[in-house]
Write a structure and sequence with these properties.
446 residues; alpha+beta; 3-stranded antiparallel beta sheet; globular
Length: 446
């Protein structure tokens, strides 16, 4: 197996993990860790080396590198745990009616936290609507919520990594626009279109540029690294934080290390003109079986299915006993300083489908509960076919550059959208969309 895991970059830990898995399933198991997993798989496949399975972003293996193989429905029916996976999780693993990966037992779930002690200090209630969020952010920015007699706080901040800040404002995007992706399918009109060119998205950008101009967003947000963004929240410079639900206990510990009296609580995404916002996103992390695998059905039934059992799940999340954790009075206690213990981050699991003996901290459970109550699965009804060239990538890059300029006021929103329309035509994305919409016969399944 090849993985892009976390703490298993350490050879000794990886060897302990390999032995524990081999002992558990009775099959010789070898894990190759590589951060550049796609490059590694491609090179090994080209060199004739056999790889059975990869744990990573599975969509890339059948959409880009095309080195994985189809997983047949009857194989899944012959499993114990895999066939229990909720249907929604399979969406991003399927293409043209075929399954190309097995979703792993967690999802990339976004949730927003607010400083409850700041709300209490200013006599404010937990925000519910977009306007509520803005009013709270305004108070956090202008009314000295930490009572240090300094004008040094903001409502919002963000990181410049991935989607040019956009992911940190997804809860608001999804309150303005009912489609969460850059490209979507309209079931009423039976056509594909670019979400970033819609009037609703323009209003979202106009709103976002307005609160940035008012000073409610950390002015360094467009240049913040991921760590800067989190550190500013821990240091009491920002009142809202958007991040992964499974990192709740990590955020709480780091916040309290700076201010023991601080309190952060997860809150529901804002209600807006498109309904309730939402912060959850489906993840395409999973197991892809490679074409070089001699016994794909056996790998699925005896290894991947075991990885979805409680024993396998805990092994992949926490590693073998004694490596990153130990038992004290029958309870698992983490001993590794790194929040990532096994192959996957320490994360919240689907309590209504799977159970784990690893205790979940209250902070993690609260974040999970808020997120689970606000999940809106808004996947495209049909999977967008691969663009035969780089035009969609070129359009996305130009759009994201304009997104940042509109946010910061370097480009007027109306002018920015005119330039976005021009980029849509310059990259010939309009021709690609016209071609897709002229023939939707390939779109068979959700």
């Amino acid at each position: 197996m090849i993985s892009s895991g976390a703490s298993l970059v350490e050879p000794e830990k990886n060897a302990a993990f390999e032995k524990a898995v081999s002992d558990a399933i009775g099959i010789e198991f070898k894990n190759i860790y590589d951060t550049k997993v796609f490059d590694r798989v491609t090179l090994m496949a080209a060199g004739g080396e056999k790889i059975d399975v990869v744990l990573s972003n599975t969509t890339g293996f059948f959409k880009t590198t095309k080195v994985s193989q189809e997983i047949l429905p009857e194989w899944i029916e012959d499993t114990t745990y895999i066939k229990q996976i909720p249907e929604e999780f399979w969406t991003v693993q399927r293409r043209e009616g075929k399954t190309w990966g097995v979703p792993y037992r967690y999802y990339s779930a976004w949730v927003t936290w607010v400083r409850q002690d700041w709300l209490d200090a200013l006599g404010l209630s937990v925000p519910a609507t977009v306007d509520d969020y803005v009013n709270v952010a305004r108070a956090f920015t202008k009314n000295d919520p930490d009572k240090n007699n300094k004008n040094d706080t903001y409502g919002f901040s963000a990181s410049n990594q991935w989607d040019a800040l956009n992911q940190f404002f997804w809860p608001f995007h999804n309150a303005f626009v009912k489609y969460p992706m850059e490209f979507a399918y309209d079931t009423d009109l039976n056509k594909y279109f670019s979400v970033w060119l819609t009037p609703e998205y323009k209003e979202y950008m106009r709103w976002l540029a307005g609160i940035y101009a008012e000073g409610l967003i950390d002015p360094e947000a467009p240049t913040n690294q991921h760590t800067n963004y989190y550190d500013k929240f821990y240091a009491g410079k920002v009142g809202f934080l958007t991040g992964f639900a499974h990192e709740a206990s990590v955020h709480v510990d780091k916040l309290k290390a700076v201010d023991p009296n601080a309190k952060m609580v997860p809150i529901a995404p804002p209600k807006g003109i498109a309904g309730n916002g939402y912060t959850a996103a489906l993840s395409d992390i999973g197991f892809a079986i490679m074409q070089s695998c001699d016994n794909p059905q056996g790998v699925l039934k005896y290894f991947i299915d075991w990885a979805h059992s409680n024993e396998g799940y805990n092994m992949f999340c926490w590693g073998p006993e004694g490596m990153n954790w130990k038992k004290e009075n029958g309870v698992a206690v983490k001993t590794a300083s790194d929040p990532s213990c096994g192959l996957s981050p320490q994360h919240v699991i689907l309590k209504d489908t799977f159970e784990s003996w690893v205790p979940t901290r209250q902070e993690d459970q609260e974040a999970f509960d808020v997120n689970a109550a606000n999940i809106r699965w808004k996947m495209q009804p049909y999977t967008l076919p691969d663009c035969p060239d780089n035009r969609s990538i070129d359009f996305n890059m130009k759009s994201l550059e304009l997104w940042t300029k509109m946010l910061m006021g370097d480009v007027d929103v109306d002018k920015g959208f005119e330039q976005m329309q021009a980029a849509y035509k310059d990259t010939k994305m309009d021709e690609w969309m016209d071609q897709l919409n002229a023939d939707l016969s390939w779109a068979k399944e959700k």
